[in-house]
Write a structure and sequence with these properties.
29% strand; 15 strands; D-amino Acid Aminotransferase, Chain A, domain 2; six-stranded antiparallel sheet; alpha+beta; nine-stranded mixed sheet; D-amino Acid Aminotransferase, Chain A, domain 1; binds ligand PSZ
Length: 280
């Protein structure tokens, strides 16, 4: 039977009930995380939980558990569900209260923390061959650094990509590439990795932070700088990163081949370094 976390407890999934007036359901008033599980262990679990608390802080949402409680409950969840290769989805909403935009009284309404685990294979074929992407207008709000439940623009962009047979939508604000609908985006030009700086306009991906650390430790040139769609289309290599997609080569954008149309050498090197990192 599948277990889930509902507030401080591990329950059967069928026993966990969320109220119709949960603010996450009504307003998207909450934050979330997805954490990878490799070999039955959380990968960068502390970093994800830290970001969950940071996102919550930015929307003035108090999580009714400590970081340590969240981590230990999550470890218990994957142990009980026997997850070896998968992920954990967790979210916290501002709780249940009669519908009003204004925050509920925190002395009467507590945040609702839920989590579940799933088996998720590594996208091996795509990692080997690369994927296609489209470009799309970034129509999101100005606090993309918050991992908020409000994902409508991301959902619409991803669907547009899927409708065109593509894996991801690469977003830009007036021609400046920000990130993907659910990933960070990098170009490689003359052996140098370039990605948008971690401002309010992107989510500072945990995978992004691992990639930049791997660059620094292995003498791979990198810069956190803005770049334009024209530079994206002229890049030697493009890759995207996320918890599930890892380091994913992009070999086609808007129908145009990237470089020689195969995953590039810098991307390959980073993939190999990442694989070492995840098996540590
Ligand atoms: O399962 C999936 O498809 C996942 S799991 C995490 C993501 C997708 N994406 C996270 C994400 C994001 O939603 C946006 C807008 N930007 C960047 C990222 C990458 O963040 P990390 O590396 O922390 O997963």
């Amino acid at each position: 039977m599948e277990k889930v976390i509902f507030n401080g407890e591990i329950l059967e999934r069928s026993e966990a009930v969320v109220d119709l007036e949960d603010r996450g359901y009504q307003f998207g008033d909450g934050v979330y995380e997805v954490i990878r599980v490799y070999d039955g262990k959380l990968f960068t679990g502390e970093e994800h939980v830290e970001r969950l608390f940071a996102s919550a802080g930015k929307i003035k949402l108090e999580i009714p558990f400590s970081r340590e409680e969240v981590l230990s409950l999550t470890r218990e969840l994957i142990r009980e569900n026997g997850v070896k290769l998968g992920s954990v989805y967790m979210q916290v909403t501002r709780g249940t209260a009669s519908r009003s935009h204004i925050f509920p009284d925190p002395s009467r309404t507590k945040g609702v923390f839920t989590a579940y685990s799933t088996e998720v294979p590594r996208p091996e074929k795509a990692l080997e061959n690369g994927v296609a992407a489209i470009t799309a207008d970034d129509i999101r709000w100005l606090r993309c650094d918050i991992k908020s439940l409000n994902l409508l623009p991301n959902v619409l962009a991803k669907q547009e990509a899927a409708d065109q047979g593509c894996y991801e939508a690469i977003l830009h604000r007036s021609g400046t590439v920000t990130e993907g609908s659910s990933s960070n985006v990098y170009i490689v030009k003359d052996e140098k990795v370039i990605t948008h700086p971690a401002t309010n306009l992107i989510l500072n991906g945990i995978t992004r932070q691992v990639v930049l650390k791997l660059c620094a430790e292995n003498n791979i040139l990198f810069a956190e700088e803005e770049y334009r769609v024209e530079e994206l289309l002229q890049a030697d290599e493009i890759f995207i990163t996320s918890t599930t997609s890892e380091i994913m080569p992009v070999v086609k954008v808007d129908g145009i081949q990237v470089g020689d149309g195969k995953p590039g050498s810098v991307t390959r090197r980073l993939q190999a370094l990442f694989q070492e990192e995840m098996s540590k």
